[in-house]
Amino acid sequence: PSGFYAKYRTGDIMSRATNDLNAVRMMLGPGVMYWTETVVTFAFVIAVMASVDLPLTLASLLPAPVISLVVMAFGKRIHDRFEKIQAMFSDLSSRVQENISGVRVVRAYVQEDAELAHFERLNREFIAQNIGLARLSGMFMPTLQGLVGVGFLIVLWAGGYRLLNGSITLGAFVMFNTYMGMLVWPMIALGWVVNLMQRGAASLARINELRNQVPAIASPPSPVLSGPAFRGEIEFRGVTLRYPTGTALDGVSLRIPAGQTVAIVGHTGSGKSSLLQLIPRLIDPTEGEVLVDGVDLRRRSVEELRSLIGFVPQETFLFSATLAENIAFGVNGAPPEEILSAARIAGLAPDIETFPQGLETAVGERGLTLSGGQKQRAAIARALLRNPKILVLDDALSSVDTLTEETILRALAEFMRGRTTILVSHRVSTVRGASRIFVLEHGRLAEEGTHEELIAAGGYYAGLYRKQLLEEELEAI
Q1: How far apart are alpha carbons 110 and 389 in whole angstroms?
Q2: Residue 87 reports pLDDT greater than 60
Q3: Which of 17, 236, 375, 422 could form an SS bridge with 316, CB 3.0 to 4.6 Å?
């Protein structure tokens, strides 16, 4: 669902996949094993004791109802406490992950001490909850052992009485007490098993909370497949897209002919990125239709659709791997020459020549060792290596200089000849060569036309052009 990643943070998901999974493993491993051993031993010993002396056996079981109530009461409290502890551990993990990822921001705003203080507070709360759980477990075991001891006292008293009045022999009495001794470990193990089971049940509920999430985007049971006939014509019909925070797109209708290069411009928050995310079906419209080659995307195979699209999002993400592995992501067995060719089209080849290990240079976590422009060009190369039928660039040239941008656009125009390309940019220089330019304002299609037509119309696009032209003239002075 669209709100999944807003609700569940990375640290929370990782905590459920590691810490909670370990608790479930303990429940299904040692927990089940000792539970089975306890039940089998208990049943066997009770059966033998009943064959020796049934009345004394029934007397020894008098504390059993109390033991059951105690186990249920402690079990519920352990379950609730452990569930709270796991939630706190998720918060702790999320905080650590966020601070590591955002360490530059923390340092830039001199918030090291504040973040350390917050981390210490979370740790203190986490420790306090764990101490509470330890106390609960510490009370549980002695209480259980005390009730088992009561059973022993009952056997000694009732057995001694029956021995004195001749109801049982001394040998039977000794044997009965021996079997009672055999019940001590199962009863003690019962407390440990209940502890494991309740912890595991709490963690399993947290894991199932994620597993039971239904994907908002999925292929239909009988999808329409394009195959070689895929052309890349895109049409938006009355598309409205609403988020919990507001409306991103409002009744947008536009058509992108197959094989053309079009551009989308607009101020920040006008809905450009939301519009692009509809094309590879990363999200679905609230109202209206998005069609590719005349077929609603919701009738198509998601896997096939995305395999035909090269998508470069606004926020570039690189994995902690080599540059070659990042460019070849999603293309198994891509030869080095094809990777280098994609990098050359994306304008990254000159930079690669300066890297100590070329394509095999490790880029660090999230591409930490690369500049913003290098990361964007690596992402473009990744999209090009897929040899897409549709190329979608969401402000993917914002971090490169104008000269490099022109070089990349010329190479892209040659590479994508006859295929559909969609550009989003705040720079007029990026979009002026497009066959068609669409202008979005407040989620609506405000203008449409070629560069010359929009300049003549004197609307938002013309104002943006004049502003950027003035900025260039001032820079030249």
Answers
A1: 47
A2: yes
A3: 375
Contact 140, 72 (CB under 8 A): no
Grouping H, G, I as helix, E, B as strand and the rest as coil, residue 233 is coil
Q: Are 213 and 228 in contact (CB under 8 A)?
A: no
Which residues pair with residue 391 across a beta bridge?
A: 310, 421
**What pTM was estimated for this model as a whole?**
0.73
Measured distance CA(389)–CA(415) in Å, rounded: 11
Q: What is the pLDDT of residues 239-264, one digit of tens each?
A: 999 988 889 999 999 999 999 999 99
Mean pLDDT to the nearest integer, 135-142: 84
Cβ count near 221 (within 10 Å): 5
- Region 180-198: mean pLDDT is 77
Cβ neighbors of 240 (< 8 A, separation 6 or more) are: 247, 249, 250, 251, 252, 285, 286, 287, 288
How many CA atoms lie less than 13 Å away from 47 in the CB half-sphere? 6
Tens of pLDDT, residue by residue over 279-327, are 999 989 999 999 999 999 999 999 999 999 999 988 888 888 898 999 9
Spell out the residues 6+ positions from residue 252 whose beta carbon is closer than 8 angstroms to its own: 236, 238, 239, 240, 271, 275, 288, 440, 443, 444, 445
Q: Which domains does the chain have, with CATH numbers?
A: 4-211 (1.20.1560.10), 229-476 (3.40.50.300)
H helix or E strand, kind and range, residue 14: helix 10-15
Q: What is the mean pLDDT of the chain?
A: 86
* C-beta of residue 381 within 8 angstroms of C-beta of residue 345: yes
Under 8 Å between Cβ of 423 and 261? yes
